[in-house]
Specification:
flat; Nucleotidyltransferase, domain 5; five-stranded mixed β-sheet; disordered N terminus; 5 strands; 345 residues
Length: 345
């Protein structure tokens, strides 16, 4: 009975709510149907649209103002940071200094290169907050540190199981300043079957270049790097009698450089009288052009007129392999232009 009474109350409540809703709808329809009230209704709608529009524009304006303010703050921060130099003990300063050091070492640049105006300007454009250390810092600290790091890394590699065996190449050569050096390079294959090479040293040789002295120099190199001579499967050298003797004294397996042997064979073949005569003519022609800027200018003009590559003439050099071939090939390529210029001589 109580439940029935409760249910009856619920129905009455929902019924009353429905009646109220219907009465409100009817009153609204009567209001809209009245011609006198239609304009007022439209005005209300229009007023709402205008208010919404103004509110939207105001919100948009505030958002743009906020963005502009953030942008201005960012620009101010950037300007302040631009004027503030990187701390010398910061990670970014160390990274940039190491990059400059690597460039000096990798590209064999002289230390004074960092003091050149063009380099400084480029660095300022790339990293305006970076203050380049002085030349003495690179020569006394940065480059020796890089050398030590590379040296230790290579030494760890050779002492590990990564290098089971290795081969080597060595050569004696003379610099432009007429200073003699001995270079020693190792080659090995990693467990992942990747070929690796590392030039371990370029020793200044002050003693006479005898086989005995070269033997001692090579042993010093192996000892310095902790390399076991038993793991060296072979060493490649040129055909110099002194280095051949050094390898015999060390009981090392020696392979003769194929490129050097090929150059020796070709050079011997070119000693034929008829060939030597042709080569001498080529050298004389090249000398005429190298000694006269007018002929060089006329050659460039003739190359353009005859639709030939704007290449300079090459001369051969006894210490440069294949240079005689390069000289003959260039003469053949530029024969038409050379004849035109020499015909007016």
């Amino acid at each position: 009975m109580e439940a029935a009474t409760r249910m009856s109350g619920y129905r009455r409540h929902f019924s009353d709510a429905d009646n109220e809703f219907e009465e409100e709808n009817e009153a609204e329809e009567e209001y809209l149907d009245d011609p006198g009230n239609s304009s007022t209704s439209i005005d209300h709608v229009s007023s709402g649209a205008v208010i919404n529009s103004i509110t939207s524009k105001s919100s948009q304006s505030k958002k743009q103002s906020s963005i502009q303010q953030n942008s201005n703050q960012t620009l101010i921060k950037e300007a302040l940071l631009r004027g503030q130099k990187l701390a010398t003990n910061s990670r970014e300063h160390a990274r940039l200094t190491k990059s400059v050091t690597y460039w000096l070492a990798k590209d064999s640049q002289p230390e004074y290169a960092i003091e050149k105006p063009g380099f400084k300007r480029m660095l300022k454009a790339f990293a305006p907050r970076y203050e380049l250390p002085g030349r003495n810092y690179f020569s006394r600290t940065a480059i020796p540190t890089l050398f030590s790091e590379t040296y230790d890394k290579l030494k760890r590699t050779f002492s590990s199981t990564e290098v089971s065996f290795f081969s080597a190449t060595t050569d004696l050569w003379t610099s432009c300043a007429k200073d003699p050096f001995l270079s020693y390079t190792v080659h090995y294959i990693t467990p992942e079957w990747q070929l690796r090479s590392a030039c371990l040293c370029t020793h200044y040789i002050v003693e006479d270049h005898t086989g005995e002295n070269l033997k001692e120099s090579l042993l010093e190199i192996l000892d310095e790097w902790g390399l076991d001579a038993e793991k060296q499967v072979a060493i490649t050298t040129d055909s110099g009698s002194n280095i051949k003797l050094a390898c015999r004294l060390l009981r090392w397996t020696r392979l003769s450089c194929f490129g050097h042997n090929l150059d020796l064979a070709i050079s011997k073949g070119l000693r034929d009288y008829s060939i030597e005569e042709v080569l001498q003519v080529c050298r004389q022609v090249i000398a005429k052009f190298s000694q006269s800027w007018k002929k060089t200018r006329d050659l460039a003009k003739s190359q353009a007129e005859n639709d030939l590559p704007a290449h300079k003439l090459k001369t051969d050099c006894t210490t440069r392999w294949g240079s005689t071939y390069d000289m003959i090939a260039r003469i053949s390529e530029q024969q038409r232009s050379i004849c035109v210029v020499l015909a007016t001589d």
